[in-house]
Amino acid sequence: MKSNEEKKRHLKNGSYSAALTVAVVAVLVVVNLLISALPSNLTKFDISEQQRLNFSDQTKDLIGGLDKDVTIYFLTEQGSEDGTIEEMVAKYGAMSSRIQVVSKDTALDPDFVSAYTSETVPNNSLIVECGERSKVILYSEIYVESTSTNSSGQSVVTTEFDGEGQLTSAIDFVTSDQLPTVYTLSGHKEAALSDSLISQINKDNLDVESLSLLSMEQVPEDCDALIINGPQQDLSQAEASMIGEYLQAGGQLIYVADYLAGDLPNLEGVLLEYGISFEEGVAVESDSNYYYQYPYITIPQMHSHAITDPLIDSQMPVVAPLSRSIEVSDLTGVDYTTLFATTSGTYLMQDDTLGDQAGVRKLGVIVEKETADGAITRVVAYGSQSMFTEEVNTTLAVGNYDLFANTLGYLCEHESAISIRAKSMDGTQLALTSFEANLWSAVVVVLVPAALLVVGVVIWIRRRRR
């Protein structure tokens, strides 16, 4: 039997252990309560491949600079909340005291949405409000499904998460006093901007309108930027004069060339005032690292500029199929920057004949000139109308639409128009250059089977020698 002293010692040790256990549990409870009280952006981390809830610098800058109160209404029914959307709006609310997040149970308050829209709004949609301005973000605009065709001709349905892009855009919309207006010139067989590109431009809070100058005396005063997209016919002298006067007053222009267009002397005269002209023929790249499948589908090298830097930072390439080469003359008072260009091994092909002079070909440039009144005229020229078509941008994982949106944002001095890309829910698509495709084909078809054959022979020889 144990002595009284042993019993006391065991009782004492047991008391210490119990007290220590209680103390540890109390500390853990306190720490847990403290952590749960912290903002969600400090306690929840997105470690998924797509990083859906890791926000861009653009979002952080916009939220950090808010000087108006914004309310985000999260519309759902209890028990049917989308966890990703719920966490996203909580993180927005944690980034600024100017943002209040309110959950609205649509089953308990079915008339709430009717104050903002007459349309049917599904659960897990959002309403963003600031003063008298508001914007509804539908669930189908957050999770976006699109159909494309793969290299085998099969239809592929992909889903993207555009929560950050839509919510940041909505906050910018409700807090902006005036939004830019962009006009696309018509009447010269211009190529129409695709619906998906217009949708992206609208998401960036830029209003897109069609413009015919045939019955007008000047470019509208509210024109923040003018787009001339692949015209097949020339401007009249009157139209050229109006556009020239618009630019001389500090206007902004995007001109996208089409290799199929013939001579356009009046339009070319407007561009020549800013030193821009085009070489005859299509750029044909000789370096297989810088074209996709065919040498005339170039993957140009991007140069640093506010327009291209977001693409460079995200390692998002652009492709420029059937592009014309741009020449820029040195003019007094005119500054130009190359946005992207080919390698030095690029030729020009005209009428199926390849030229014998290789060199670097500029495929995208921006020209800037200060007016007498101190305003800045900007002209951006791109050599490929095909690069902004639906076919190219749904087939390849490229940043061409972002490039266009970034260009408009820069010209309109609307920083929030620098696009935030939607994030794939289905993994990342991979677009290989011709060289990369051939390299991996050689690895898979030749090197791997050869390595397996060698290993098999070695094993067979060793067994034979035993």
Describe this entry's structure for a reader.
The chain is flat. The chain has 13 helices and 22 strands. It has 4 domains: 11-39; 44-179, Glutaredoxin, CATH 3.40.30.10; 180-413, Rossmann fold, CATH 3.40.50.880; 434-466. The chain is of the alpha+beta class and 466 residues long. The chain has an 8-stranded mixed sheet. A 4-stranded mixed sheet has the order 2-1-3-4. Strands 5-6-22 form a 3-stranded antiparallel sheet. Helix 8 (237-248) runs parallel beside helix 9. Residues 44-51 have low confidence and may be disordered. It has helices at 4-37, 40-43, 57-64, 83-95, 139-142, 163-175, 195-203, 237-248, 265-272, 309-313, 390-395, 400-411, 434-465, and strands at 70-76, 99-105, 125-130, 133-137, 143-149, 155-161, 181-185, 207-211, 225-229, 252-256, 276-278, 282-285, 297-298, 301-302, 320-321, 326-328, 334-341, 346-350, 353-354, 362-370, 376-382, 423-424.
- Amino-to-carboxy terminus distance: 69 Å
Poorly predicted ranges: 44-51
The second-level CATH architecture of the largest domain is 3-Layer(aba) Sandwich
Spatial extent as radius of gyration = 30 Å
Strand order of the main beta sheet, please?
8-7-9-10-21-20-17-14
- Continuous helix count: 13
What does the overall shape look like?
A: flat
Proportion in β-strands: 15-25%
Structural class: alpha+beta
Q: Could you give a short account of the major beta sheet?
A: 8 strands, mixed
Rounded mean pLDDT score? 86
Write down the CATH topology of the largest domain: Rossmann fold
CATH superfamily of the largest domain: Class I glutamine amidotransferase (GATase) domain
Overall tally of domains: 4
How many strands appear in the DSSP assignment?
22
The amount of helix comes to: 25-40%
CATH class of the largest domain: Alpha Beta
